[in-house]
Amino acid sequence: MKTDLALGLITGIIFGFLLQKGRVLRFEKQVGALRLADMTILKFMLSAILVGMVGIQLLAAADVLKLSHKAMNFGAVLLGGALFGIGWAFVGYCPGTAIGALGEGRWHALFAIAGMITGAALYAELYPFIKRTVLAWRDYGKIGLAEALGISPWVVVVVCWGGALALFAGFEKKKM
Amino acid sequence: MKWKTDDGGWNPYLAGALAGLLAVASAWATTHWLGRTQYLGSSTTFVRAAGLIEKTVAPEHVAANEYFTKEKVRVDWQFMLVIGIFIGALIAALSDRSFKWEGVPPIWRERFGPSVRRRMISAFFGGVIAMIGVRMADGCPSGHGLSGLMQLSLSGFVALAMFFGFGVLTGAVLYGGRRS
User: How distant is the Cα of A31 from the closest Cα of chain B, in angstroms?
Assistant: First the structure.
């Protein structure tokens, strides 16, 4: 197996293991978060983000790696984000967790995966139209929040940590 | 704060923090060995899977499609990552005996009954809409949520807010708000 494929597979196995142990793959946890009743997936996601942002920002500051921002395309992120949110509540999984849920035997995730692959095929057909319309509205480019605000990324990191820790305290207090 | 949850899982803060370390290690390892930094994500793989399936019946159509050409229909690093997620989840579920064959999720059954067909229709069409959304936004909760926020991308913050905002609104309509 080529290096890139082997590296992807190993990383995926560890990621899938952690997602399952964190119980993030459950339909109950996904829908629980959307009902603001069980915040397991937010605890998992935000913890990963807090730890990850320090590491990634350090590596970027040391010039070890380059950041690769996704474009802040106004129509794409707002309309696409809203569509995902609506679909997410119906399907109960995001793309990665649907695959993982199948791994823990929840075979109903197959319906979700079939829908997602169909959605991807449909998007490929719709792409020329979407490119002319939604994607053409306004593109702010591939920028970071810190650059957009003209401040140091470390200020953003500190604010994120503070905000997330306050959220965690709230979750624990309300036993969410 | 407990190390284990009531159902035998790991503390979600701990599992999440380890996933954060994995994301950093993976970004470093791909830069070092592949010469190109790869961030965790999964939804582009669904495009490639759709392309690979379509290719078996209509190869010219896939070759001529602008989006498939842009995203390159092939098995790559992220494709293997997604396969790995399946294997890792399977190993973890077998290791603590939480593996379970399940055709209808319990809370879905409670709200909408035991019909597999009803679950299938909702999951399928929800999946279609969700995937069109993430492809339009160019990222899912892994790509935009985890990887975007770790990089402090403006699009990541906005996307995650939209995902959860509209997810919570739709969830309230479907499930009738919070029940504790």
Answer: 7
